[in-house]
Amino acid sequence: MRRWSNACATCCWRWTGSGVRRACRWGSGALRRRAGARLRGRPRRLRLPPESCAAGAMLNAVRCDDPRRSVSMQTPAWYYRRLRSMSPAEIGWRLRARVRDAVDARWWARRVEETKADRVLPAELPQPIGNPVVLGDVLRLTRESLVPGEVEEILRRADAAMRHRFTFFDLQEVHLGDIIRWNYEPSAGLETPRCFSSRIDYRDTRVTGDCKLVWEPNRHQHLVVLGQAYHLTGETAYAAEVIAQLESWIAQCPFGFGMNWRSPLELAIRLINWAWTLGLIARSGLPSGAVARRIAECAYRHLWDIRRKYSRFSSANNHLIGEAAGVFVGTSYFNYLPGASQARREAQRILVEQMQAQTHADGGNREQAFSYHLFVLEFFLICEVVARRIGEPFPESFRADLRKMSEFAAAWMEAGDPPMYGDADDGLVLGVGTAGQLGASVLTGVEAANAGFRWINAQDRRGAHATWVCGVSGFDWAARANNVDAVESLRSRAFPETGLFLLQGRLPGGEAVSAALDAGPLGFGSIAAHGHADALAMTLRVGGCTFICECGTYDYFTWPEAREFFRSTAAHNTVEIDGGSSSEPLGPFLWGRRAETRCLKWEPTPDGGAVSAEHDGYRNLRDGVIHRREIVLSITRRELLVKDEVMCSFDHEVRQFWHIGRDCQIRAVGDNTYRLTGRGRVILVRLDPGLEVSLHRGKTDPMMGWFSAGYHQREPISSLVGTARVAGPVTFMTRFEFCTPDVNPAC
User: Fold this and answer.
1) CA atoms lying within 13 Å on the CB side of residue 125
2) d(CA 274, CA 420)
3) Cis (ω within 30 of 0) for the bond into 254?
4) What share of the chain is helix, strand, coil (3-state, %, to 5)?
5) In 3D, which of 606, 614, 368 has the Cα closest to residue 500?
């Protein structure tokens, strides 16, 4: 056995025979362990140099052939259904990827040698380590450039990062160790496998916990906060902490091993945050010497791995956009790396193509999820700004589509918090803000980037992206724009390709009313991964308060029953037939039969207007049930009418759902009549007398009456469920009355 000085034999040997032997010369003596798993074959040498596992990072690693490892959570039936969703070309591509991974596992030592610093880096690295032009006049920001309270918030978050305390999803100030455990899943208390990354089934929560809870701190968005703190204060401790955390990450996450090399999207997001962080601490003189070479070498390996594994076919959704963005920003910052120019041109081409492929003509993202619309918009914004700074601008068509995406998002945010249609997982790219600020922040960034977009209803345009992406010029522009009075008009809007319609207006007191109807496709591509079974779902906002809400997403991997509920028809304000969803779920990110929707009428008026649509999601039933919905908003009459028609020939159970916003209180005031109160405003809801109405709150078996504002966060809300047995065509009328006691005594 060949031994490497100060290296773990886990990295030097790969066992596929009976049991597992691990020997390590790091520290005192050797450690040998045997696992009970019976595997086939013979042990084969996988020779990796010491720097691949630095300081015995794998000594206590949980291996993929550890007895605790469970089988994949996906069933044979799932694999069959997933294969059916693929084209022959995609099947061939995935088979080639499996072969590539097998070859990599056998010859990984060669990959390590090919990407070593002495082969890919110049003899002398530039100082600073990357191209300062990438950040532009972000580097000219001062304390005076920020809105009141922002400096204090940045320093608060930076001090938490200094103490290795992280807040993300449902976890608050969780401590990840005196030396951060980068492969740790804090919610499950689990050390994740550190074997060859392609062998890890990240969907198996018994092995990896929830993969998102491992990946989130490894996006290194908190390092940007440390960089911001250094830039604003000049205190070297913040810059030193950045370098210390990067060094510990490289030591614990050797190239190609463990969860943090499993997803190219995660590599891409990390690389973008590295570029921003290193740019912000550049004047500290850190990193330098051997440390700088290790960081640059690791950056090259990120780029190398992403480019080999670009998502394609049914996986080419937001992942491909993020991967290309990571390569574009990474090669712009580390522009001296071999092949950087070619990789950047390739990434720019992909971004232009995917802007077209994944964006509807009306500006909506084809994944049919508002959270992912903002997620990819942030990628596009960062790349647009960086491209102009380095003198390689995107074509005007790209900028035009960026404006359309921004206008789409702005329209949904004019009347309050946007409806959370489709999946949402609190995804951010740069660590310059929070998930709750993302929409307004990105839109102010696009506005400040002078892309020709004016978010005229913004109350404060100086968001984090306007300052920390666009820099001083963005801040100056936004500050001037804030002196312009916001336009008070609110009109009905249609986005026919996305299939989303807004009936809007203002009540005499100035309160904005916005009713949204979802009559769009399920999602993007053959699997529609992030779509929900929300055909003809409606939401209602009045005076900035959401009275009728979407329930959210809550989870992807950990709780299958919750994943099933939150994307089901029952979790949306629409009609369900015979207890089934309007589209057929086949897996956590896979759909079978899909509801096909079509708009029948769109008649906007200054008073609100009307929209009607129908879907055939229940065509699998023997009489091919059709659901048709019409919504009519009249500001003058202060009411919203919802007409549901169920066209059928046989006996069915029909359920109608209305999920009440978390800021609202509900009280029964008569037969099928309920009073909703939220933020000082009152709405009366009158359900059809033909429905038997029940009220649910925080119910678990079956789930009903839940709202999720963020990933792994949920709280009980009130949900009205109207039920009826029908044996032929039927119509249900629901009336929402916007009232005050002086207008309607029932209020």
Assistant:
1) 25
2) 30
3) no
4) 35, 20, 40
5) 368
Q: Which two tokens stand for residue 273?
A: 């945050």
Task: Compute the average pLDDT of residues 376-402.
Answer: 96
- CA separation for the pair 607, 503 (Å, rounded): 9
Return the bridge partners of 515, or none: 503, 540
Count Cβ atoms below 10 Å from residue 55 Cβ, excluding itself: 17
Q: What is the pLDDT of residue 512?
A: 96
Q: What is the DSSP letter of 4?
A: -
Asked whether the beta carbons of 266 and 219 are under 8 A apart, the reply is: yes
Inform me whether the pLDDT recorded for 340 exceeds 80.
yes
Question: What is the identity of the amino acid at 725?
Answer: R
- For residue 12, give the nearest of 44, 34, 37 by alpha carbon: 44
Q: Scan for tokens 């001062």, then name that residue.
A: 142
Joined together, the tokens standing for residue 675 give: 């009073």
DSSP summary character for residue 418: P
Mean pLDDT, range 561-570, rounded to an integer:
98
Q: Is 349 left (phi over 0), alpha (psi -120 to 50) or beta?
A: alpha
Assess contact for 369 and 530: CB atoms under 8 A: yes
- CA–CA dist 283, 582 (Å, integer): 57
Residue 288's pLDDT is 96
Nearest by Cα to 259 from 56, 63, 113: 63
pLDDT score of 665 more than 90: yes
Burial readout 595-630 (b: 16 or more C-beta within 10 A, e: otherwise): bebebeebebbeebbbbbbbbbbbeeeeeebbbbbb
Token pair of 192 as six digits: 């994740």
Q: Is 389 in a helix, a strand, or coil?
A: helix
Structure confidence at residue 474 (pLDDT): 67
Domain 499-739 indexed as CATH 2.70.98.70: yes
**Hey, what amino acid is at 293?**
R
d(C-alpha 363, C-alpha 493), whole Å: 13
Contact predicate 162/230, CB 8 Å: no
- Alpha-carbon distance of 503 to 597, in angstroms, equals 18
Place of tokens 């110049």: 122
CB 220 within 8 A of CB 273: yes
Beta bridge partners, 138, equal: none
540 forms beta bridges with 515, 548
Cα 476 to Cα 50: distance, rounded to the nearest angstrom: 50
Residues composing the chain: 747
Q: Return the sign of the alpha-carbon dihedral for residues 309, 311, 313, 315.
A: positive
303 pLDDT higher than 90: yes
> How many other β-carbons are positioned within 10 Å of the β-carbon of residue 568?
21
pTM of the prediction? 0.90
Please provide the distance, in angstroms rounded to a whole number, between the alpha carbons at the two ends of the chain. 83
Position 464 scores a pLDDT of 82
How far apart (Å, rounded) are the C-alpha atoms in residues 17 and 9?
16
Asked if 541 and 580 touch (Cβ cutoff 8 Å), the reply is no
DSSP per-residue letters across 63-77: PTTSTTPPPPSS-HH
What φ, ψ does residue 604 adopt, rounded to 5°? -75, 150
Distance CA 489, CA 562 (A): 40
Q: Nearest 5 degrees, angle CA 403-CA 374-CA 400?
A: 15
Long-range contact set of residues 95-98: C-beta below 8 Å, sequence gap at least 24: 97/309
Q: For residues 475 and 146, give the distance between their C-alpha atoms in angstroms, rounded to a whole number.
A: 8
The span from the CA of 457 to the CA of 682, in Å, is: 25
The residue ranges of DSSP E strands in 476-544, in sequence order, are: 493-495, 500-506, 512-518, 537-542
Domain boundaries, the chain: 1-60, 69-310, 499-739
Residue type, 656: Q
